[in-house]
Design brief:
By secondary structure, this protein is mainly beta. It is built from 1 helix and 22 strands. A hairpin with a 2-residue loop joins strand 7 and strand 8. The N and C termini lie far apart (about 40 Å).
Length: about 260
C-alpha cells in the first residue's frame, strides 16, 4: 500500500493518484528521489514560533531547499527543550511543494490535524499533554472455502474497532481505551474518554470515527488541536502547525513575501 502524504489515505500501488484527495502519489513512493530544489536563497515561507498565550513570536525565514530544525539548527534553532534533538526535523521547500520529515528522533515531530484525518495502525497522537498510540484491529478473516468460520476470537464480530493507548515515560502503557463504532468521543468534561485534569483539552475535543474500513480522527473544534506524529516525508501547507517537544510552530508565508 502507498500512503498519500497529503491526506494520509492508503492506496493500492497500481494507482497514480490518491483515491481520497485526488493528488499525485508520486511523492508518496518510498523510491522517490526529491527533485533538486532551486538555490535562490531566502524562500517565501517562514516558521513562526507560537507563544504560550497563542500569539505569534519569533519568525524563522526558510530558504529554498532543505531547512534543518533542532537545538543546533542551523536554520531554525530550538533552545531549552530536552525533547528536541540537535538535528530534529527538516522542512524542504521547492516550487509549490513543501515537506516535513522527522530525522528519526526519540520524541518525534507532530503535525496538527486539520478538521479530520485518516489514521493507520501504530499512529501516535499528542492531545493536550498526553501521548497516545493507536491500535486498530485486523480485518476479520473471510470464511473458508467450505463456508466454515474461524474458531476463537478471530471469527467473532468485535464490539470495538481498536484501542487508544496512553503512553507514559519510556512508552509504558498507563491507560487503555476501547474504540467503539460508530464513533468514540474524547473531551475534558464530555465524551466517552474523559481527560478532566488536562487544561489543554477542550470540553469536547475530538472523535474517533469508524467508517467501516478505516478510522478517521475528527477535531471537534478544540482550542489546542490534535497532533499526529509524522511518518516519513509529509506534505505541509500554508497555515499548518507543527509540534516539537513543547514548541509549536506555524508554517506560513513569510511577512516579506506576503507584503509583495
Amino acid at each position: 500500500m502507498i500512503k498519500c502524504v497529503h491526506c494520509g489515505a492508503e492506496n493500492e500501488p497500481i494507482f497514480t493518484y490518491c483515491l481520497s484527495c485526488g493528488k499525485p502519489l508520486e511523492q508518496s513512493l518510498s523510491s522517490f528521489k526529491p527533485r533538486p530544489a532551486p538555490t535562490t536563497g531566502v524562500g517565501s515561507y517562514s516558521l513562526f514560533a507560537v507563544r504560550a498565550d497563542g500569539g505569534i513570536g519569533t519568525e524563522y525565514q526558510l530558504i529554498d531547499g532543505l531547512n534543518t530544525i533542532g537545538s543546533k539548527g542551523p536554520e531554525v534553532v530550538v533552545k531549552d527543550d530536552p525533547r528536541v534533538a540537535d538535528q530534529h526535523a527538516t522542512v524542504e521547500l521547492g516550487g509549490e511543494m513543501a515537506f516535513l520529515e522527522d530525522l528519526g528522533t526519540r520524541h518525534g515531530t507532530f503535525l496538527r490535524v486539520r478538521d479530520e484525518r485518516s489514521l493507520s495502525n501504530g499512529d501516535q497522537l499528542r492531545i493536550g499533554h498526553a501521548l497516545f498510540n493507536l491500535e486498530l484491529r485486523g480485518k476479520r478473516p473471510q470464511p473458508a472455502a467450505d463456508g466454515s468460520t474461524w474458531l476463537g476470537s478471530a471469527g467473532v464480530e468485535s464490539e470495538f474497532f481498536g484501542r487508544l493507548l496512553r503512553l507514559g515515560p519510556d512508552d509504558v502503557v498507563i491507560e487503555a481505551h476501547l474504540l467503539h463504532p460508530p464513533e468514540t468521543t474524547m473531551g475534558r468534561t464530555g465524551g466517552d474518554i474523559l481527560m478532566p485534569d488536562d487544561p489543554f483539552v477542550s470540553s469536547r475535543h475530538a472523535a474517533f470515527v469508524w467508517t467501516g474500513s478505516s478510522c478517521v480522527l475528527k477535531d471537534t473544534g478544540s482550542t489546542n488541536g490534535c497532533y499526529l506524529r509524522a511518518r516519513g516525508r509529509v506534505a505541509i501547507n500554508d497555515g499548518d502547525y507543527m509540534l516539537l517537544g513543547h514548541h509549536v510552530f506555524l508554517f506560513k508565508r513569510s511577512k516579506e513575501s506576503a507584503g509583495k
